[in-house]
Amino acid sequence: MSLRITLSLAAALTFSAGVAIAAPAADEPIQPIPAAKVKDANLVELGKKLYFDTRLSKSGFISCNSCHNLSMGGTDNLKTSIGHNWNKGPINAPTVLNSSMNLAQFWDGRAADLKAQAGGPIANPGEMASNHALAVEVLQSIPGYVDEFKKVFGSDKVTIDEVTKAIAAFEETLVTPNSRFDKWLKGDKKALTATELAGYNLFKDSGCTACHNGPAVGGNSFQKMGVVEPYTATSPAEGRVAVTKDEADRFNFKVPTLRNVELTYPYFHDGEAATLSKAVETMGRIQLGKNFTADENAKIVAFLKSLTGEQPSFKMPILPPSSDATPRPTPFEK
Ligand code: HEC
Ligand code: HEC
Predict the structure, then answer these.
(1) Do the domains spanning 2-30+178-305 and 41-171 agree at the CATH topology level?
(2) Which residues, other chains included, contact 111 with Cβ-Cβ below 8 Å and sequence gap of 6+?
(3) Whose CA is nearest to atom 16 of ligand 2?
(4) Where are the domains of the chain?
(5) Active site residues
(6) Cα separation of 292 and 196, whole Å?
(7) What topology is assigned to 2-30+178-305 in CATH?
(8) How far apart are CA 108 and CA 222, in angstroms?
(9) Does 90 score more than 50 pLDDT?
(10) What pLDDT shows up at residue 320?
């Protein structure tokens, strides 16, 4: 029901935007991404270190960046992730880029925000396989960290709450402004080619913007995967129902952001769509009942690639060394 309302809203938007040649950005269903505002530079710097620190894992080998590689669009570019002990992950790793704009975290939205999310992977046996007590013990044994936590939080005692707070603050800086599409939205009409613009119009006119809208081009609602045609999934993930226990939410997933989608292959919660062209074909067919021609598909793909923004750039953090008291990693223990 609510979906039907949003779809007709998209159709209404389409009519008004379709005639305008240079519609002002305010009329568009997608808005530019604002640059990150850093409130506490020391907190962000600490969070960056923790994001890259493999010592938060049992193996001493896996960090957040192992699966959300900031050199590769904030993902691992794998169908499903590899966790502790080469564990085969159950679901595709979404990008951390622009994740601060999500209405909730994870495909099923089970974490309310980035801080709530960040504790999960450290203690997940299939991911980093540590636990919060051990992670804190490790950090507490490293003098360089103790000093830095003290500088930021004012106490000698490291807590998991501080760890997740710092990681979340770093993640909030991982936004990707100034894509060519955003330049176009802001009035630089030469920023897009005719093909990309045609792709954007197809994206709007077909109804994609009913679900992929706002600054992140998604991330702001849960929607059914397979609205007009069921999606045959290879993974057991059941979507939002796992959180709400409401049958109406079965196979509802958080609509992923399409920002930087050129970099975040493969696609869908099961990683089954290897290419952007395949993802667009599937979406058109199962969400909207549209069979795009090869030419239409290529135009939409061209538009989607214009959503690649400036990637976060920073100096690689140099991590403080372990001390004699630091618990040693156990990479080959189950
Ligand atoms: C072993 C691989 C792996 C590691 C290590 C890992 N993640 Fe993830 N991450 C995933 C997967 C897979 C998901 C999706 C899980 C789901 O939705 O059920 C995910 C989801 C997320 C999300 C939610 C994004 C969204 O759009 O919903 C964020 C944010 C995130 N991870 C941040 C982190 C941080 C911070 C760390 C380090 C503390 C970390 N991850 C470590 C694989 C990993
Ligand atoms: C009814 C809502 C809805 C509509 C309409 C819709 N999508 Fe989606 N889109 C989703 C959801 C939900 C997912 C995630 C599905 C999953 O993985 O289970 C998704 C995933 C995607 C992905 C994969 C992103 C990733 O990181 O895995 C792409 C690309 C995409 N959509 C493009 C489109 C295009 C192009 C259109 C229009 C032809 C469209 N979508 C229409 C809801 C929608």
Answers:
(1) yes
(2) 104, 105, 117, 120
(3) 268
(4) 2-30+178-305, 41-171
(5) 127
(6) 16
(7) Cytochrome Bc1 Complex; Chain D, domain 2 (1.10.760)
(8) 8
(9) yes
(10) 98
User: Could you tell me what percent of the chain has a pLDDT over 90?
Assistant: 90
pLDDT digits (tens, 9 = 90+) for 180-194: 999 999 999 999 999
Q: Which ligand is the nearest neighbour of the Cα of 210? A: 2
Read off the pLDDT of residues 128-179 as tens digits, 9 standing for 90 and up.
Answer: 999 999 999 999 999 999 999 999 999 999 999 999 999 999 999 999 999 9
Ligand 1 atom at shortest distance from the alpha carbon of 105: 27
Ligand 1 atom nearest to 66, measured from its CA? 5
Q: What tokens were used for 169?
A: 């603050």
Pocket residue to mutate for ligand 2, from 225, 238, 287, 308, most atoms within 8 A of Cβ: 287
- For domain 41-171, the CATH architecture is Orthogonal Bundle (1.10)
Structure tokens at 41: 């530079």
By the 8 A CB rule, do 297 and 208 touch? no
Q: What is the pTM (predicted TM-score) of this model?
A: 0.93
How do beta strands 82-83 and 87-88 pair? antiparallel
